From TrEMBL:
Pfam families: adh_short_C2. This is SDR family oxidoreductase. It comes from Adlercreutzia wanghongyangiae. Signal peptide: none annotated. SUPFAM superfamilies: NAD(P)-binding Rossmann-fold domains. Belongs to the short-chain dehydrogenases/reductases (SDR) family. InterPro entries: NAD(P)-bd_dom_sf (IPR036291), SDR (IPR050259), SDR_fam (IPR002347). It comes from the Bacteria. NCBIfam families: PRK07231.1.
Length: 248
């Protein structure tokens, strides 16, 4: 156990699997009180049990990040249990990959809601608390696909580019309240998000990465920890890439 987040209260939005889960586990090991959230109650409760068994502190709040009432509830339950919020990680994201002409308006709305609206709702709900505290750290998870066009992720890339723009504007507007807002940008990471890719597409992406491998979720959790922690106290409005030297 470390102490880089000692006495901090951290919400990790969408943290029952993948990068979010690795981040929640790492934050707890570093002393944070962690709020695990997601749609799958069984996975969330199990993760909280496992964090507690390892000596950490956590709670689960069932949340669909695209539902405004759920995001309000996530913040309210956190404050009720732990009294405040110091860190918000907006980790939710994804989107179906397909030929551009086959996308529907529903796809457009769903992908933008998951990647963009979720960040808007998370930030909007925590800001009043962080502004009152005069401090706070928000980390938004974007994607290397913003700089590296691959097949089939056009709407997803559009939404993730919006997350970077939102991050810069928020960092500028809320610096005077002691609030930092940054992005962490994964490349290709070994999680369920690639389930729908064929081995051929996935291997072609890996071949294109100078390190010739996918990242592991923990290799994203550490950059997120850095940006979330006081160690990054002079960093705001920035994007920290963790992608095996891809898309330079
Ligand atoms: N894995 C990669 O290669 C990669 C690359 C670039 C960016 N990212 C980004 O990293 C973040 C984490 O992705 P991951 O790879 O861990 O994927 P993942 O699919 O393993 O995890 C995504 C999580 O989001 C949750 N989620 C999806 N819709 C939700 C909703 N409406 N409400 C609440 N939770 C919801 C899922 O249940 C899951 O727990 C995402 O923002 C993703 O876009 C991942």
């Amino acid at each position: 156990m470390g102490n880089r987040l000692e006495n901090k209260v951290a919400i990790v939005a969408a943290s029952t699997r993948g990068i979010g889960r690795a981040t929640a586990e790492l934050f707890a090991k570093e002393g944070a009180k962690v709020v695990v959230s997601g749609r799958n109650e069984e996975l969330g409760v199990k993760l909280v049990e496992s964090i507690k068994a390892d000596g950490g502190e956590a709670m689960f709040v069932r949340t669909d990040v695209t539902v405004p009432e759920d995001m309000e509830n996530l913040v309210a339950k956190t404050v009720e249990q732990y009294g405040t919020i110091d860190i918000l990680v907006n980790n939710a994201g994804g989107g179906n990959s397909q030929n551009f002409v086959d996308y529907t308006v529903k796809d457009w709305n769903d992908i933008n809601d998951l990647n963009g609206l979720s960040v808007f709702l998370g930030v909007k709900n925590v800001l009043p608390i962080m502004m009152k505290n005069g401090s706070g750290s928000i980390v938004n998870v974007t994607s290397t696909c913003v700089h590296k066009a691959t097949w089939g992720s056009t709407i997803y890339a559009y939404a993730k580019a919006g997350v970077i723009a939102m991050t810069k504007f928020l960092a500028t507007e809320f610096a005077e309240y002691g609030i930092r807002v940054n992005c962490v940008s994964p490349g290709v990471v070994n999680t369920d998000i690639h389930k729908e890719y064929s081995a051929e597409i996935l291997n072609a992406m890996i071949e294109d990465i100078p390190m010739k491998r996918m990242g592991e979720p923990i290799e994203l959790a550490y950059p997120i920890l850095f940006m979330a922690s006081d160690e990054a106290s002079y960093c705001s409005g920035r994007v920290l890439d963790a992608n095996g030297a891809w898309a330079l």
